[in-house]
């Protein structure tokens, strides 16, 4: 067995049947060992139900050559004793004397109320089966040795935290002869199983898996004599649980460590000692006839704290169901959350850019688009620009042309005036006041304001660059074009075209007349 097993300490009181007392378990101390308690005198009357002791239990002897033996599988053992004057003893482990002692106030002896004054130590043993013996040497009946109990260190599976699971006696399987008793409230759940059928066939058994160590509890009473315990793959062991006066409830009857928690084990207790085929005669002060009995109170399984493999084939608690999420579910939830956040961000960005694109489109939209049917806006002009264009009318094509003379330009020279948009024709028609009035009403134009016209290439340039530009005939810079002026000119051109279409339709002619603005008579 590997030394890397988790150490597990088990406390053993002096009245546990796992200790073998010689030459007798309970009797006068000068003839062997005597079972006693630290409070009150030894009972004077025998009780078939036993007496619950007061104080600290211990065994005492004044017999030279008295001994206590213990067998276990583990790595350490600690004996707690109290020695009288001139009382000598020998502490043997696997036949080798051990003289190591420790502090009697150590936790190994903490259950004995400070009555133990010697701690015998045998630790750092190789893991395996060991036999321990305490041998007493006295020269007369005065000195005595008191034994309070021991602690053993066994192996309990892999290293880590451990827990225990209690299997109630009702979960065992029993042959005939076993019955339930409920006369002891100190037993587990207040009841236990009893067999007084002294026979190798009087058996109680339980099968389990998932345990690193196991402990069997029962009763120690005057008529609980020899019994045999068998654990799978291990040799049977025989113990004696009798006590003349005292009743020890739920005492440790058997223990074993170093189990493989992946294996299945069956523990069996038989009310029988093969070394004593006939039931013993009960020896008690009142010579009360007794019957050899055996008891089962509970089974304690030591297991890994996180283990969920405790499954007894004949009973036991079901394995715990985990309520935690697996790693796969956790990762799936995290991924889904991140994906949701990404989708929300994408939707927000799409809405944001659509809103921004709409605003940019509204800001950059040109007024000469489909709204005005391709009509180019005519910018405002000053007198120098007007003069230069008017002198080169021969280069202009038919269409919307300026009419007037430089003399009609406003002063000062750089004043910006809205032009009057008119149409010309080679035909000489009289000017109709109604049409002129309509044009005046729409554009709110002044007859004395000289219109301005541009060559086609200049008009296209104005579409691309509505800002001020230099005239070829003058070094004076033209002021920047006003957007409001451009809109008024464009609206005037649209109204003029509409008037032309109405006239041609009404008169039935192919070419529109030229509406010539006449200067007012002074």
From TrEMBL:
Protein's UniProt keywords contain Transmembrane: yes
Record keywords, A-Z: Membrane, Transmembrane, Transmembrane helix
Superkingdom: Eukaryota
Biased composition regions of type Polar residues, renumbered to the chain: 469-479
UniProt entry tagged with the keyword Transmembrane helix: yes
Residue ranges crossing the lipid bilayer per the database entry: 327-353
Region named Disordered: 435-484
Protein name: Transmembrane protein
């Amino acid at each position: 067995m590997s030394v890397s097993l988790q150490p597990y300490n088990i406390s053993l009181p002096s009245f546990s049947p796992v200790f073998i007392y010689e030459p007798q378990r309970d009797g006068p101390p000068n003839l062997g060992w005597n079972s006693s308690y630290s409070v009150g005198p030894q009972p004077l009357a025998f009780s078939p139900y036993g007496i619950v002791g007061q104080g600290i239990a211990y065994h005492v002897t004044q017999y030279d050559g008295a001994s206590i033996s213990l067998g276990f599988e583990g790595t350490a053992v600690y004996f707690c004793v109290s020695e009288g004057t001139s009382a000598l003893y020998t502490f043997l482990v696997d036949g080798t004397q051990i003289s190591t002692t420790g502090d009697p106030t150590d936790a190994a002896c903490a259950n004995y109320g400070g009555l133990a004054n010697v701690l015998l130590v045998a630790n750092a043993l190789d893991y395996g089966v060991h036999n321990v013996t305490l041998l007493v040497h006295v020269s007369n009946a005065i000195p005595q040795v008191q034994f309070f109990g021991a602690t053993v260190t066994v192996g309990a599976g892999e290293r880590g935290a451990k827990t225990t699971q209690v299997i109630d006696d009702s979960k065992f399987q029993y042959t005939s002869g076993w019955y339930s008793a409920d006369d002891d409230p100190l037993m587990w759940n207040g009841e236990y199983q009893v067999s007084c059928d002294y026979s190798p066939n009087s058996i109680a058994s339980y099968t389990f898996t998932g345990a690193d160590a196991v402990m069997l509890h029962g009763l120690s009473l005057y008529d609980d004599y020899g019994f045999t315990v068998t654990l799978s793959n291990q040799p049977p062991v025989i113990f004696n649980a009798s006590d003349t006066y005292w009743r020890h409830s739920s005492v440790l009857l058997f223990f074993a460590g170093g189990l493989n928690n992946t294996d299945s084990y069956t523990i069996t207790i038989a009310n029988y000692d093969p070394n004593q085929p006939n039931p013993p005669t009960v020896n008690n002060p009142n010579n009360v006839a007794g019957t050899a009995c055996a008891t089962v109170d509970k089974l304690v399984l030591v297991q890994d704290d996180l283990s969920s493999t405790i499954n007894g084939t004949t009973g036991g608690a079901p394995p715990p169901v985990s309520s935690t999420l697996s790693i796969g579910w956790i990762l799936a939830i995290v991924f889904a959350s991140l994906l949701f956040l990404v989708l929300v961000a994408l939707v927000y960005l799409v809405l944001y850019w659509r809103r921004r694109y709409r605003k940019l489109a509204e800001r950059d939209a040109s007024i000469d688009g489909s709204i005005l049917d391709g009509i180019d806006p005519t910018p405002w002009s000053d007198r120098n620009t007007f003069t230069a264009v008017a002198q080169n009318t021969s280069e202009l094509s038919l269409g919307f042309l300026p009419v007037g003379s430089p003399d009609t330009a406003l002063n000062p020279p750089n004043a910006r005036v809205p032009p009057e948009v008119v149409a010309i024709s080679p035909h000489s028609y009289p000017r109709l006041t109604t049409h002129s009035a309509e044009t005046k009403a729409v554009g709110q134009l002044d007859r004395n304001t000289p219109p301005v016209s541009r060559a086609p290439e200049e008009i296209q340039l104005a579409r691309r660059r509505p800002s001020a530009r230099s005239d070829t005939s003058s070094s004076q810079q033209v002021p920047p074009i006003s957007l409001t002026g451009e809109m008024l000119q464009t609206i005037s051109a649209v109204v003029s075209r509409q008037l032309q279409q109405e006239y041609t339709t009404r008169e039935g002619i192919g070419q529109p007349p030229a509406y010539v603005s006449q200067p007012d008579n002074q």
